Amino acid sequence: MLNVLIPGRHHLLSEFLHDYIKNLVKKGIEGKKVERIIFAITSSDHENTRRNPVPLYLRALAIEKFSKNINCETKIYPISDVKETKKFAEYIIHRIEYLGGEKLTPKNTLIASSTPSVIKMFKKMGFQVITNELIPGEKEEKYSTLRPYEILNLLVKAGKKWRTDKNWKKYTSKSTEEIYLEYNLGDSIIEVFKDSLINEDANLTETRDYNSYARGMDQNIQFKFNDIAPFVVPGKIVDAGCGTGALIWHLSKNFEESDIIGIEATRKFYEYCKLQEYPNPFVYFYRKNILDQNFKENTVNTFIYSSVLHEIYSYISEDSLKKVIKNTFKELLPGGRIVIRDVVGPENPKEKVFLELNEKDGKDSGDVHILSTKAKFYKFVKDFKRRKIEFEEVKFLGKTFIELSIQDAYEFISKMNYTDNWKSEMNEEFGFWSLSKWKDEIKKVGFEIVPGSKSFKSEYIIEKMYKGKAKIYKKEKGELLVLDYPDTNIILAGEKPKFN
Q1: pLDDT tens across 276-335, in order?
Q2: Residue 488's CB: how many other CB atoms inside 10 A?
Q3: Is the pLDDT of residue 96 over 80?
Q4: At a CB cut-off of 8 Å and minimum separation 6, what does 338 contact?
Q5: Structural domains present in the chain
Q6: CA atoms lying within 13 Å on the CB side of residue 81
Q7: Is 337 helix (H, G, I), strand (E, B) or coil?
Q8: What b/e sequence results for 202-218 when a residue is b if at least 16 CB atoms lie within 10 Å of its CB, and e otherwise?
């Protein structure tokens, strides 16, 4: 028996590939009859991203249609995504053996691929490879026709006219075209490709360790829920930027009659959320860009933004943050609320203060994980991307202090412990808006401030992260007096007026 294994993501099957395979089956290969075509659908557990815009079940359905008139047995194996590895070909072969109990070897299987890196890996294992669109023997990569991702780009370019556009259809197999039209796939693909918030794999930044980030965000989730819950209006509750779904779990437990909707852009978090169990069955997740208006006007009771809006400000822009607030106002029903739990800046950001930093709790140089608090400050000054940190070293009563603005002091102490994601944190600004500024911005679009909104100090942050590492002083009458640490967070709720 001769198998032909076709590894790929298979989001779009071309007419070229259909004719190519049909010809292989008809003529055979080097006198051998092709008895089975095996499609290995890689990145099978990913969807709704630019790299993987089509869900597995629709890719498989298109392959089923694609194979009907090939006159050969066809099998489909889903291959879960893995990080880039030189053993990717081995992984596919072992995965097929694990899933189906069949051993594909160079003696019984030929590989069909046009991706040079994949071809190289399979050849190293001893497999013979036929190259599909790739023209063999050329010094530079040349192809006889458009490749699937290039055809997909034609669809995206067609925009709203994709259903009637002939450019992408000219290269696309009938089976793929039928599936795209039947399930309106073009609309969702175009939406994903136009998403400006995220990268190819739907992550906000490539410098973040999402495992440690998730642990840090979730360790205080009960406190966050306790802050947010009193302001929630039951009904349709949206947690925008829901991360791992930890807050969703608490919402679903405590608001049993409500629909709980999680919006998450980051692929890893989105997929994790969908795998969890929740106390309330009415829990739904969407991989959407929260910059967009994702719900019809006057349809949502509560929008929650927990530790996410500062990222919009930092990674996108202040105008984008204001746009999110405006869109939220439109989407809320009269009487509905926006609930924001996030970081907050000082009310008097330019006030000069003096920092005393521990220089004995680590080393003077080396990796950020082993630096003393004082050494981290100098690294922070060098690495912080948002603005230049102006400071001066001053001597007072035999001690060295750092004189700087309260805003910059807060920016450092709020980040000094996040060494696992240091590079990512250096792109983020926490103290950009004070409580009064936050209130002004949501009032501008029409919200009324709900009583109980406030800024506050997280006792966990103060006790576990600040104390013993940094002290803040102000100068009065020639003396340095200890200041309280700045507020760390806000809980701010705005209500859309019930009557205009």
Answers
A1: 889 888 899 888 888 888 899 999 999 999 999 999 999 899 999 999 999 999 999 999
A2: 21
A3: yes
A4: 302, 303, 305, 325, 328, 329, 332, 442, 447, 493, 494
A5: 2-145 (3.40.50.620), 210-345+490-495 (3.40.50.150), 352-430+460-487 (no CATH)
A6: 14
A7: strand
A8: bbbbeebebeebbeebb
